Give the backbone structure.
Amino acid sequence: MKFFIDTANLAQIKEAQELGILDGVTTNPSLMAKEGIKGQKNILQHYVNICNIVDGDVSAEVISTDFEGMIKEGKKLAALHPQIVVKVPVTKDGIKAIKYFTDNGIKTNCTLVFSVGQALLAAKAGATYVSPFVGRLDDNSTDGVELVERIIDVYNYYEFETQVIAASIRHTMHIVKCMEVGADVATCPLSAILGLLNHPLTDIGIAQFIADYKKVNG
Ligand code: E4P
């Protein structure tokens, strides 16, 4: 099981890396914009900066919607750093691009996945990762965790090697539930990762131990 952090914020990436549990990073154009990263040169440099903080895979998303554009952009992104994974949306051109990248030894993350059928095509094209968006499905009255479970069942049945990233994670229970159904990766905001630590009995226990120690030792 792997933890990715879903952000382009360097301070948060560093904090998760220093925690010692980080396996990679996912970004998207919205997350890059949130950090105020603009202009081709700065965007590419930001991906390199992220790669220099973490040891694992770093997903960088293409903006193009046509096959040729995706290939051009994806090659440029992949050339930036060996840790870069090219993130491609699950469209007709996207699936063709994933197949091309697979055949050319470039890792991919098939994104914006909301159905088993989409995940099936991503795996057939040889995607390294597939990203079902749990939170966005839940936002639309559909069980996101259930989709993750169904994709995993199909992948296991046919022995596909594509790894399932539970994406669009909003909170700790999304992480726990996705792990319970066997997701390979959860890509999460830092707050959700740190939220896993929270339990009032832990806080009460620590306070009690310190108080008891002080009673005897002053
Ligand atoms: C995953 O790779 C996506 O970038 C991300 O998880 C989307 O999350 P959101 O629905 O919170 O925007």
